C-alpha cells in the first residue's frame, strides 16, 4: 500500500492530508514534505487531516510526535482531525490524544488553531 501526502498552507495553518498507510516505508517522505512546508511558510500551526489514513505504525507515530515537539518548542500548536477507527485506537493507546487535540473535520481544526 502506498501513501499520498498533500501539504498545503491555509489561513496560517499548514494542513497535512494523508491518504493510505503511514509506515516505515512512507514516513520519511511525509516528514520531509511537512517539514519543508513548515520551513517555507514559517507557520507554527500544523493540522493533520487523517480522514483517509487507513493504517499507521510506530514510524508514523514518530513523525507526528517529532512534528509536535518541533511545533511546541516554537510556541505553536498541532492538532489532528478526521481520525479513522484504527488510527484513533493507536493514538489513544500511545497517549498522543492526551497532548494533541482532535477535531471533527479540517475546517473546525483550522479555526481552532487560528484562535490558539
UniProtKB/TrEMBL annotation:
Entry-linked Gene3D superfamilies: STAS domain (3.30.750.24)
Pfam families registered for this protein in UniProt: STAS
InterPro entries per record: Anti-sigma_ant, Anti-sigma_F_ant, STAS_dom, STAS_dom_sf
GO MF annotation list: anti-sigma factor antagonist activity; antisigma factor binding
Ranges of residues in domain STAS: 3-113
Domain of life of the native organism: Bacteria
Annotated keywords: Phosphoprotein, Sporulation
GO biological process: sporulation resulting in formation of a cellular spore
Protein family: Belongs to the anti-sigma-factor antagonist family.
Function comment: In the phosphorylated form it could act as an anti-anti-sigma factor that counteracts SpoIIAB and thus releases sigma f from inhibition.
Name the record gives this protein: Anti-sigma F factor antagonist
Origin organism lineage: Bacteria, Bacillati, Bacillota, Bacilli, Bacillales
